[in-house]
Design a protein that fits this description.
Helix content of chain B: 25-40%
Oligomer: heterodimer
Strand order of the largest sheet of chain B: 2-3-1-4-5-6
CATH architecture of the largest domain in chain A: 3-Layer(aba) Sandwich
Number of helices of chain B: 6
Strand content of chain A: 15-25%
CATH topology of the largest domain in chain A: Rossmann fold
CATH architecture of chain B: 3-Layer(aba) Sandwich
Largest sheet of chain B: 6 strands, mixed
Largest sheet of chain A: 7 strands, mixed
Number of strands of chain A: 15
Amino acid sequence: MSKQKVMMGNHALSYGAVVSKVNVISAYPITPQTQVVELLSELCSNGALDSEFIKVESEHSAMAACIGASAVGARTFTATSAQGLALMHEMLHWAVGARTPVVMGNINRSMGPPWTIWSEQTDSLSQRDTGWLQIYASSNQEVYDSVPIAFKIAEHKKVQLPVMVVLDAFFLSHTSENVMMMDLDKAETYLPKYKPKHKLDVNEPYTFGALTTPEWYYELRYKIQKAHENAISVIEEAQSEFKDMFGREYGLVEEYKTADADTILVAISTAASTAKDTVDELREKGVKAGLLRLRFVRPFPFKKVREVLSSAKKILVLDRNLSPGIGGIIFQEIKSAMYNESNKAPIYGFIAGLGGRDITTETIHNIFEEAEKQDPKNIIWMEVKA
Amino acid sequence: MLEIRIHGRGGQGSVIASKILAYAFAKEGKFVQAFPEFGVERRGAPVAAFLRVADKPINSRSKIYKPGHLIVLEPTLIAAVDITQGLKPGGFIVINSKRSPEEFKEKAKDSTIATVDATEIALNNRLGSKAAPIVNTAILGAFAKLTGMVKIESVIEAIKEEVPIKPEENAQAAQQAFDKTII
């Protein structure tokens, strides 16, 4: 019997780790992630969760501990945000190169300075070249469900890579929503105990991450790229099995009223959720609007994106992130995905909501309106104060 | 969709009130969202918490600027902040006060106002101290009475499940407030 709770996104992340029966947690608290760690350490100390909680002095050490634990065959979880994620940067590469299937929650927070705690996706998108798979959730139910799904993908022998489950600061982390909880036994059937092919074991010694000359390093990088490509079908299988067992359906992307849409907005995270209301309002006025939400940003769902956008007359991309000097990151990726396609519809890039500024249905209405007057060659900034 | 704003002072439990009320609605099959002001709160300073309730999944994940209804945990706030800012006409306002609803009428002429002495009810149930009574559960009983949007039974169940300290006393406070609310 599944039970309904009303919980904040941070606790949905913690309970996602609980239902995944993680063996080792190592994390360092940082606003707005703190409740994730608080709840997990409480559940470890009161015996409700049979996991080892390793306390550390920094996020760099937290990820190092996770990599070590994963290398000995433990299912391993951590969570962080913004500056904490940036401090992990070296270890994020390490987790990928060592092929350790760590799952990490990241609460999207803008990078300081100036000091800030509010939502923006630049922290996690800055890490997209490390090789971590990235899931961007748009509800607390999706946060909760994505943790066991992430482990199933990460630990799959065709993937063997770490996965980040990403959620917006405050809009999800501190917002309480309905969450249907999984039955623990059923969850264990979905995600059985982790059995790595190779692990650190004194009785059967292996070396992880030893010096590798140009003769073989190249091939190991090739295999990581192949693992990302393989991950597409692994994700589809993992999510289809999830739907069969728990009734909730997730795709590589989420399509909302795109089938006959002339103008399709591409977005991630909670801004994409809010955009559904705008799409509904525009539809009522006879505007053929649609929404494409990228749930996975890595691996990049090229095939799905191209399919959904194949007959759009205008493509709008909303970025709550900024790569200074070039603009929105998702905008660049959508343009690169569409470059060799036959659909040459203009692609407009919009920046909104940096530093946690609210993105309302009105903001998104304005985006649809601006697209009628703007040149797609420009970066279009919404609601900039003079 | 219902949009509710709760006014209190930091430390009074406005955020917990929003979560308990959300859970009570969820028990009746509603979709809910409860959230604090996004940022850092200080004890004693005016704070707000928010709640959305709907019959279908809620897409909007932006803040609430035009609430339909208000819950006021602390009567001194009425002089300190503009509690009716953005308030839509025709809604409900429940205020923790010894005074009669008529005395607040000029604040919101189009709203239906109810008052309840949640402070006294909290103290009678030994919730908090005289200097800092915990009124967040009592006021929810009054909200159920005033609006009829949620059953008092659901509120009490939610309190018993969600309040870690003195759940029975808190549940009793909600019931007593429900019985004593003046509309």
